[in-house]
Amino acid sequence: MIMRAFFCIELPDEVRSSLAEQSGRLQRTLGSAKWVAPENLHITLRFLGEVDGVTVSEIQQEAQKVAAGCAPFQLQLETLGAFPRPERARVLWAGPAAENEEFSKLARRLEEAAQTVGLPPERRKPSAHVTLARFRNPRDVSTEIAPLAGAPLELLVNQMVLMSSSLGPQGPTYSPYARFPLAG
Ligand code: 2AM
Questions:
Q1: How far apart (Å, rounded) are the C-alpha atoms in residues 40 and 16?
Q2: What pLDDT score does 184 carry?
Q3: Ligand 1 neighbourhood includes 6 CB (under 6 angstroms)
Q4: Which domain, by its residues, includes 15?
Q5: Is any atom of ligand 1 closer than 6 Å to the C-beta of 83?
Q6: Residue 22 CB–ligand 1 contact under 6 Å
Q7: Are 62 and 117 contacting, i.e. CB atoms less than 8 angstroms apart?
Q8: Largest CB tally within 10 Å, which of 56, 63, 74, 135?
Q9: Phi then psi for 43, rounded to 5 degrees?
Q10: CATH number at residue 19
Q11: Is the pLDDT reported for residue 31 higher than 90?
Q12: From the CA of 47, how far away is ligand 1's center (Å)?
């Protein structure tokens, strides 16, 4: 068994629909890009890539321990932002205005877990964000970067999800594979 997978935080319906609405508005001004479908909006904790059955079972054991050691926390989505920077954006996102320590801790522990089961290290620093769009060619979105309408969108992060992803011509389809309640 080989599965494309990642750990993420799911969004409550009201946060998802608010982001979908704002994404729809941005779509009308920015146009051509790969816009993330509303049902696919999420906050990535750790992308695993293609993993085999043994790795999936081992990472679940490690994730269990991580979740047992982290307490639920609040996350506020306050602003639009862009990677690597607004003037040459490849990714347009919604997220907190500043680093969230609890998110960073959870992501750091998952990074350790991934390395424990033999996955290669992730070089990118984890940052809490919901990807709204990806641009094939970098573009200037600096005039769009602003606080989110109706901000802050608040969510209680009380579990993380191991998501499987299958890639199709219409884009990815995500299915929750396992859930890990934060119980620390
Ligand atoms: P993102 O959080 O910035 O959007 C599922 O593909 C998720 O894993 C995406 O949301 C994506 O980033 C993240 N991810 C990280 N590295 C990836 C990679 N090499 N390929 C695909 N997705 C990756």
A1: 9
A2: 87
A3: yes
A4: 2-181
A5: no
A6: no
A7: yes
A8: 63
A9: -115, 115
A10: 3.90.1140.10
A11: no
A12: 6
